[in-house]
Amino acid sequence: MSSTTKAFLPYTNPSRIQKIDSLKVFKASHGCFLKDNLSESYLDLNAKNCGNVLLGYSDHDLINALTQQASILPYHSIHQWSLSEPLIDFMNFFNLANNQPNNGFFFANSGSEANESAIFLANSFWKIKGHKNKKICLSLQNGFSGSTIFLKEQLVQIHRKNDKLFGQELINELKSTISRIGADKISCLIIEPIQHHGAGATGDIEFFDRLKEILNENQILLILDEVVTGFGRCGSISYSQSLNFKYDIITFGKSSTSGYFPFSFAWIKDSIYLELLNFNSVFEFGYTNSGHPIGCALARIVAEKVSQPSFKVSTNEKGEILSKILTHGIPEVKSVKFYNLYGYLFFEDTVIAAEVKRRLFKRNILVTHYKNYITVSPPAIIDQNEFNYLMDNLR
Ligand SMILES: Cc1ncc(COP(=O)(O)O)c(C=O)c1O
Q: Is the CB of 147 under 6 A from ligand 1?
């Protein structure tokens, strides 16, 4: 039995892991590279799981903020009728940067928890309004990435004929799902503005406006899951807000602290937040580490960096260069889709995509594969050095 088998690894097959003699063990990192315990370096084109490490592995501002915050106030619980300075700073900065000064926050530690919190808030909203039966959450097929059992039990997925499109067909499928279940039982719809496990499907402002209109007619709240697309991955602090998509709650996670600390939150539109303040009993919900001061201090720095206009320009340029290098260097690529530094490479089928992923791994390049595509989401500090490395290693 290999020594690594004592830990269950998320989204892996335990019996297959048992058969592997030794898994790769990483011990160090620098910039865009990870180093294993045999001192071999890998270019992390996936920023270790859907682009978490947005600012790279050696961002001095983040390292300094982390150590400084740990030396001043390493822990604080917001359960006990009090706040911390980093928490207030972060909320003020985030609301101002998004031009939404009166939005509310519900803090958590992971994307799944942020989504669960958002659904809890949506259900609480309807309870206040006297609709106690509105508890079901709608999502798209392959359009929800959360891990909690509670959530999985409450979800109803919209059956889709074509999971590549956000258009009229999806609107029709939404309408028929609502009439099948009954609007009086549905609390919210959760949707990713770019569907991570849906081949990067997305919609334009007309689609999202129409979606919101139908949800409003049926008294259903709209939760946008920006756990992947938020905090810079697509060039702005919030992808949906850079395009003016309407929403009731937005969830953020992954790159909010560039992966340096577990941190996530649900961001609540002011009108919904104000209504929720009428909830006149204890919120039986939340997390011991909600609004952790280290997470808040780091998220404040990431938010500041990604809301600079130059960040959008540079991630757009780098995405274009990366897309060209990968298309040129991997002959099996059929087509590509890039949203700044959130990219999809499409292949003929799943087998080819898996083969390419293995080949890249052998050439010390890390990417993620799902179905017939590979996603790339490198640290935003990727630059000429890494582009040269890629061109050399893809040859
Ligand atoms: C779009 C999206 N939302 C939520 C999550 C869940 O985040 P976490 O793994 O931090 O719980 C994921 C995870 O990959 C995701 O891709």
A: yes
